[in-house]
Q: What sequence folds into this?
C-alpha cells in the first residue's frame, strides 16, 4: 500500500506544472465580473498588465492587480525568473460557494439573493 502511494506521489510531482502562479480563493465578487478584467490582461507582459489594471475602473481590478503582484513575486523569489521576461500565460476564474440570503417581499413572501464568490488563478510564463 505504501509503495503505491509513493509512486503516485512521485508521478504527481513529475507531471506538475512548474510555471509561477498565484490563486485567490473565496473572493466576494461574481466570476462574471472578474472574467471581464482577466480577458483584458491575458497574453500581455507583466508590466503592461499591471498598467492596464492600475487604470481599470472595474471593482475586481485591485484584487486581480494584487494577485498579479503575488504571482510575479513567486516567479522572482521562488523560481529565480526575471520580471522583464514574464508574461501572463493563463488566467481563469471559477465560481466559489454562493452565500444565500433572503429579502422580504410583499405579503410575507421572500426573494432569494445570491452573493457569489470567485476563485481566481493567474499563471505566468517566461518569453523565449
A:
Amino acid at each position: 500500500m505504501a509503495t503505491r502511494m509513493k509512486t503516485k506521489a512521485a508521478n504527481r510531482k513529475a507531471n506538475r506544472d512548474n510555471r509561477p502562479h498565484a490563486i485567490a480563493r473565496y473572493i466576494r465578487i461574481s466570476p462574471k465580473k472578474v472574467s471581464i478584467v482577466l480577458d483584458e490582461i491575458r497574453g500581455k507582459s507583466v508590466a503592461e498588465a499591471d498598467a492596464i489594471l492600475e487604470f481599470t475602473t472595474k471593482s475586481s481590478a485591485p484584487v486581480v492587480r494584487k494577485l498579479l503582484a503575488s504571482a510575479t513575486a513567486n516567479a522572482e523569489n521562488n523560481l529565480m525568473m526575471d520580471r522583464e521576461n514574464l508574461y501572463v500565460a493563463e488566467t481563469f476564474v471559477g465560481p466559489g460557494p454562493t452565500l444565500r440570503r433572503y429579502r422580504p417581499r410583499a405579503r410575507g413572501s421572500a426573494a432569494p439573493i445570491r452573493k457569489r464568490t470567485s476563485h481566481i488563478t493567474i499563471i505566468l510564463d517566461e518569453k523565449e
About this structure: The radius of gyration is 19 Å.
